[in-house]
């Protein structure tokens, strides 16, 4: 009963790994807030923050939601919806020329 | 000893047309559709970003330390949620309930912070009707708050039902906890985006002041 849960042959992370991931997520959040306050980084604020939040997003989805270990159909469904959502955001912003502001 | 599949998320073989558990499949379809829901709300916020002609403006009302703390709360609630699932999958219902209640309490703390933030904004003169920023901000974060509220009720319901019917929190039935977990983690990742796009990437203050 002590073995780790697994799906499709890949073992899930254990509590220690989950805590390690939480530490990484917290550290990234601290960096995000620090970047926000550092004047010298203002010109690169958008790419830096988008990159950092993307890493946090991916860590939660892959390890906490277990998409990395689950059936590919779940990943396909979720990534499909996500890609559609991003497309909607980009299309609307392009339509209203919001990128130019 | 149970099969690994019984301990894991989904039994190895489901007697369904897809071979996958349909409740879990439905949850992922719902989350995919919710991506579109929040995508449109975020897009609307971005379209009207910096277009308010009257204040209050974001830089005048946002409290970044408070919001960062709220972001930290939701990240920690994701940790407690996944620890709850791991405990239930190991057959430890007691710790499963403890972690689930911790998750619900962290969610409540987040909601209290959001309520305080909203009331502070109203005091400062920012309401959904006063300008475009207020309308889009309250709509986006309000719907997220509603999702968190639903999640807190769901978490509490899972714990209460498990006390009345302990079998619902057995390792064999860990899907009950996994489904609320998927929903809760989704609420967390939406906040990851909102925290960055809305709070940290603020538009430049208007030149006319």
The domain count of chain A comes to: 2
Percent helix among the residues of chain B? over 70%
Oligomeric status: heterodimer
The CATH class of chain B is: Mainly Alpha
Radius of gyration of chain A: 18 Å
Distance between the first and last residues' Cα of chain A: 58 Å
Commentary on this structure:
The complex is a heterodimer of chains A (101) and B (209). Chain A folds into 2 domains: 14-66; 71-101. Chain A is built from 3 helices and 2 strands, in the order ββααα. Chain A has helices at residues 15-37, 45-64, 72-95, and strands at 6-7, 10-11. In chain A, strands 1-2 form a two-stranded antiparallel sheet. The longest helix of chain A has 24 residues, at 72-95. In chain A, 29% of the residues are buried. At the A-B interface, strand 1, helix 1, helix 2 and helix 3 of A face helix 1, helix 2, helix 4 and helix 7 of B.
Question: Can you lay out the helices and strands and say which pair or pack?
Answer:
The complex is a heterodimer of chains A (101) and B (209).
Chain A: E1 6-7, E2 10-11, H1 15-37, H2 45-64, H3 72-95
Antiparallel strand pairs in A: 1-2
Chain B: H1 4-7, H2 22-47, H3 58-61, H4 64-89, H5 93-123, H6 132-164, H7 175-200
Helix pairs in contact in B: 2-6, 2-7, 4-5, 4-7, 5-6, 6-7
Characteristics of this structure?
heterodimer, A: 101 residues, mainly alpha, two-stranded antiparallel ribbon, 3 helices, B: 209 residues, Four Helix Bundle (Hemerythrin (Met), subunit A), elongated
Short précis:
The complex is a heterodimer of chains A (101) and B (209). By secondary structure, chain A is mostly helical.
